[in-house]
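Entry for nicotinamide-adenine-dinucleotide complex. Fields follow.
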Amino acid sequence: MSLFENALRQFDKACKVMDLDPNLQAVLSKPKRELTVNFPVKMDDGSIRVFTGHRVQHNIARGPAKGGIRYHPNVTLDEVRALAFWMTWKSAVADIPYGGGKGGVTVDPKELSDGELERLSRRFFSEIQVIIGEDRDIPAPDVNTNPQIMAWYMDTYSMNVGHSVLGIVTGKPLDIGGSKGRTEATGRGVRVCVEEATNYLRDKGKINKPNNQLTVAIHGFGNVGSYAALLTAEELGMKVVAFSDSSTGVYKEDGFTPEEIRDIMDYISARKARLIDYKDGNFKHITNDELLTLDVDILIPAAIENVITEKNAKDVRAKLIVEGANGPITPEADEILNEKGVLIVPDFLANSGGVTVSYFEWVQGLQYYFWELEDVRNALHRKMKDAFWSTIRTMEKYNTDMRSAAYIIAIERVATATRLRGIYP
Ligand code: NAD
């Protein structure tokens, strides 16, 4: 089964629960527009290589398409289509006025020199310019693309149209129209979901401890995981007892202080190091498998996909899982955890802080008016809280799990926009 067919399975399940009109279901299950480009790039040795890339716009009923561009040898049109489809639901559940889009180039960027990478990026962006625009489709970074590449994209588009267009991409460097608070945004969104979900479980009598006795384990200590660890400790006062990266896990029964977490973050980012390289800590090493089944209240998988599977799901002891990563729980494990009564805040809600601050960056760029960090944080908290509680209300209304509820609310919003706009002509 292709990735896109797999994505449709979740969608079809939610459509059934909400009894969606089959005509609308047919419209929403197909991407609106797909562009494949084959383009030449001059290599440093004088040869020319032809690369293939794609940009897919799944749905634009609620606003311009939005979604990252990835560079990876495994990029296919089917993968980009599935990722664009998920972006439609992520934008809708976060209630930001965007549709879903995604792009990718089939390339291993590690094999390219800086000059080749720049020429590839500029040529690809020129090739897809026929369908993108600040009010049509706004790309962003994804796997193996970064703020520098966004700067090249922005410059390429601006050169082609003859003036600077800040709103054409998000994830830009701060000096050329990036937003304050973008780096921490996804981890901060996860932290908001942890706080709200804990309040919800307390109301339901499923959590009876104050925050400073609640234990948290975090799988992955990259951008999302490290900020999730720092902010749950620093701002929520919870006991972050464990976190890990691909090299090792670290465990401390009394919890890591925010200062310790910050020190480790600084150490890793200054040296491009891994957790295993950090020798100053007073902690125990554990494996990633041990971390996932620790006796903690809250588990935040924030590394990669498919880490909680039918093999380890029954051993997971957390009452609350907030998915920082995309797809960390397989469908089979999801069923086991739901049966055990674990509350799972699904990925496209829990990690929507990043796209939400991307939306703020776009708004700032369109207005040439840049916000203070506090304004970005406050606006992000409001958006995440609203999205969280709308999903909880939908979950209770349909008596379903939170993942299906998030799909239902997203599909309802896109279906309503489609219904109101009508079918042209
Ligand atoms: P990152 O590359 O900064 O960090 C990934 C972390 O996971 C690293 O610490 C790495 O060592 C660890 N890791 C990798 N393989 C592992 C393994 N097998 N076991 C344990 N740890 C492992 O990536 P990120 O930006 O933090 O993204 C993490 C996840 O969140 C991805 O699924 C990504 O798609 C998703 N996400 C990220 C953002 C964002 O704004 N960065 C937004 C939405 C979703």
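NOTE: The two ends are 35 Å apart (CA to CA).
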